[in-house]
Target: Assimilatory nitrate reductase catalytic subunit
Amino acid sequence: MNAVATHCPYCALQCAMGLVPDGRGLKVVARDFPVNEGSLCRKGWSATALLDHPERLRTPLVREKGRLREASWEEALDRVVHGIRAIGERHGADAVAVFGGGGLTNEKAYQLGKFARVALGTAQIDYNGRFCMSSAAAAGMRAFGLDRGLPFPVTDLAGADAVMLVGVNIAETMPPLVRHLRGVRDRGGLIVVDPRRSPTAELAALHLRPRPGTDLALSLGMLHAAVSSGLTDDDHITSRTTGFAEAWRIASRWWPERTEPVTGVAAADLTTAVATLASARNAYILTGRGTEQHSSGADQVSGWINLALALGLPGRPGSGYGCVTGQGNGQGGREHGQKADQLPGYRSITDADARAHVAGVWGVDPDVLPGPGRSAFELLDALGTPGGPRGLLVFGSNPVVSAPDSARVARRLAALDLLVVADLVLSETAALADVVLPVPQWAEEDGTMTNLEGRVLLRRKATEPPPGVRDELRILADLAVRLGQPPERFPVDAEAVFDELRRASAGGPADYAGIGYDRLRAGEALHWPCPAPGHPGTPRPFTERFAHPDGRARFRAVDHRGPAETTDADRPLWLTTGRILAQYQSGAQTRRIAELDAEPFVEVHPDTAAHAGLADGDVARVVSRRGTIVARVRLAPGIRPDTVFTPFHFPGAARANLATNPALDPLSRMPEFKACAVRLEPA
Ligand code: SF4
Model:
């Protein structure tokens, strides 16, 4: 029997899989594709378990007398439109906001941005990818003039002699990616930077364990070691970059022995890492959320890019810098207009030419398009406050679990006049809503996703959704028409929306103009930019030149600054958070799948636990300035004694984001998920 060729619903690797009928449902079968070569992690293998799950939403819900009850689509949509109108008349268009998601297809992300700016007329739209990729995106844009997570195919990694993973735990988050690093692991060139000994660090020849929030000092020390040991690629610096002298003026003050007491990384290990990278024929530096989710996240990434540029890696065939994207459409999700400051094609919303182009595609006057809105946390934190939005539409996100200082976010949501959530299960955010709209799952729809390599992939429908659910494109069209928009402005067919997206992106940095469904159906998986039909796509955009007008990459003069809050006698430890193998993001999907059973925990060094009077398996409280997490202790001698770790997938008392700090990076507006001061005590 022919399998329907599609891709996994979860992370940014977007592993290929096939779906075949199995009794009354669907079964996942292996499918060969360069990123995963037929393998999947346990999340991918079990993905169909949610399709007919008993907790699946199959009809709209509306709140009445404090409780959610079932409703018809007519009633639910009328209630949404009535709420939007009432808020708009009283408080203006900006009083209704939209919160999107990095797991939405390109088509949905695009249509959501258009819906917000044209049908609602609001500037207030942002998405949960702000919590994921924004620091790397901002640093990548200013260094290279283009933000593409990996500016090379993952298969290139197989030829590397050295790879440094900074704050990336791929052995748990993207296990099939490990197969591309087997060669470098066997050659002894794998370096991992992580305050805990993660399963990925277990694979490394060298594990650097910096104190949380000190990665920038570490990268400055490594740049110092590279320059002072004559290991830089001076031809590359001269011919392909600008700004080295300014960056060096700061790095020259960070000799390895000065770096050591700040970061906790031995100067000898730091210099070994630099020598390994510099002596490799092919080398890569890859960053992830561990170094990006900080109030200095964009500068931290710039520190790693500076090091990579000094070693001559970006743009050199077989070498490079890249960011390992997290969410399934983390790349595409930020390209098509659901970001507060961007229009489709990765265009700036303040650029007059970009506004004119996109307005032309949408058939509206550029002057009616709103300007930039609030970033994700700022938007959530303004909800229900004087001058802030009074209504919110959430698509594909669960901020009650995933946003920092999440109890505060839940209070803001509760203060709204109208909360609408479109989701496939009753997530913790949906449970607070006035209206819940049930939507299809990945196997029930056509659409495109853009993976961490900037490769556009076709998601194919393998089965019909339950009769009571409605596709997000249709929901947006239904709402838009009720709000007075012409139906032709909001098509419901995914291919028609994608064709419009192609026109809107044409000529922009993320140019999809040449990528049609016909090519994707024929088996092509093209990397943007792909400006015309017949264009082969651009797997390695920086080989000849970078995307700045002068064709050069830019060093950025950045200096270390620590986390926004400090440890003290009352809260002497650092809390950092992350993912585990069996769960995904806020866990709304994976916590409901029996094969992915997992318990919350707090990982603690044995000495730290003993000091707090705790043993393995004891229930502990992790207390920050904002909230308290309760979870069982898991002893781990590989984590720094001054650091504890907890996964962020769980609700209730184990909710990691009860404790995390919403201090924002000034450029990317990324919250500081990865370093907050806590104390540990028996519960
Ligand atoms: Fe799915 Fe990511 Fe696992 Fe691949 S690595 S199967 S894309 S969750």
In short: The CA atoms of residues 321 and 425 lie 38 Å apart. The pocket of iron/sulfur cluster is lined by residues 8, 10-11, 13-15, 36, 40-41, 43-44, 174-176 (CB under 6 Å). The chain has a mean pLDDT of 96.
